[in-house]
Amino acid sequence: MAKLKTLLPTLKERKRYLVFDIIAEKPITNAKAVEKAIVGSVLSYIGEKGLAQAGILFLANRFDCWKQKGIIRVAHNKADDVRSALMLIHEIDSTKAMMHTVGASGILKKALGNFMETHTPHPKGG
Q: Cα dist. 90→8, 12, 31, 95, 109 in Å?
């Protein structure tokens, strides 16, 4: 059986990891409800074609219900549109809520380290 060739780096999809924060009346514990709210908001903001081009992937295993933070993966050229759509969310699972983007990174490990942690980075990088 022939071995499949890997894609060249220039042909791979470039992605961004957006770390978001939820501010709600009561804590949101259902990751599926968060995913449904995100996809619904992006769908209504940029449409079906934009949703497909954004290639949104909600990382449910990275959703922290204690900190109310999570990560979604999007295409690099649609990151700003997805950020705008996140700001338009007003309700998650029948609870008044709002979302804002904490930060964006091209590497998941850096997104976890820089934006998901509770410590604030030192101004001089330490």
A: 41, 34, 16, 8, 29
Give residue 94's region: left, alpha or beta (phi > 0; psi -120 to 50): left
What is the chain's Cα-based Rg?
Answer: 16
**Residue range 97-114: average pLDDT?**
93
77 and 15 in contact (C-beta within 8 Å)? no
Contact 41, 51 (CB under 8 A): no
Model pLDDT for residues 25-39, shown as the tens digit of each residue: 999 999 999 999 999
Write down all domains in the chain, each with its CATH number in brackets.
13-116 (3.30.70.3250)
User: How far, in Å, CA of 20 to CA of 87, rounded?
Assistant: 10
Q: For 72-88, what is each residue's pLDDT tens digit?
A: 999 999 999 999 999 99
In sequence order, the β-bridge partners of residue 2 are none
- pTM for the model: 0.83
The tokens for 79 are 């990151």
